[in-house]
Amino acid sequence: MLLEGSCHCRAVRFSVESHEPVPFMRCYCSICRKTAGSGGFAINLGADFRTLEVEGREHLGVYRARMEDGRTSTGQRHFCRECGSALWLYDPSWPDLVHPHAGAVDTPLPTPPVVTHMMLGSKPSWVALQVDRDDSIADTYPDESLADWHRRHHLSR
């Protein structure tokens, strides 16, 4: 599925091919929540980095999070320097993947049949979980990858 996205001020626009376009995984970790989350969580999709096309690259900034142990994350969180919109995460540890933020995608996305709530150990107390009966929850990372979840639900594109 071709995803097209942009920042709020439209200084940065992007497109990327995604085989994992269903926004099912909500991350409550402090990094995602503070850099891209609006409801106490952020939603990232899986896409093919080789297909990423960007207009307005000169407006991009990159943030690499400081981890609790003092290390700097290898993950590169791209955002618009003009309006601050979080756009995508790229980590050279997985060079074939890029993770666009669902909130920056302009293409209509499929509705997930169920949701995975991850990194609940980092969820702030003010965030009320809205967990349906068939949803999955995980205090850290779930055992199932984005790709595996899409395959299991017959939603790979």
UniProtKB/TrEMBL annotation:
Q: Which InterPro entries match?
A: CENP-V/GFA, Mss4-like_sf
Keywords, comma-separated and alphabetical: Lyase, Metal-binding, Zinc
For the CENP-V/GFA domain, which residue ranges apply? 3-150
Chain coiled-coil ranges: none
Family the entry assigns = Belongs to the Gfa family.
Q: Which Pfam families match?
A: GFA
Species of origin: Aquincola agrisoli
| Name of this protein | GFA family protein
SUPFAM superfamilies according to UniProt: Mss4-like
Which PANTHER family has this protein been placed in?
A: DUF636 DOMAIN PROTEIN (AFU_ORTHOLOGUE AFUA_1G09754) (PTHR33337:SF44), GFA DOMAIN-CONTAINING PROTEIN (PTHR33337)
Report if keyword Lyase is assigned.
Answer: yes
GO MF terms listed in the record are: carbon-sulfur lyase activity; metal ion binding
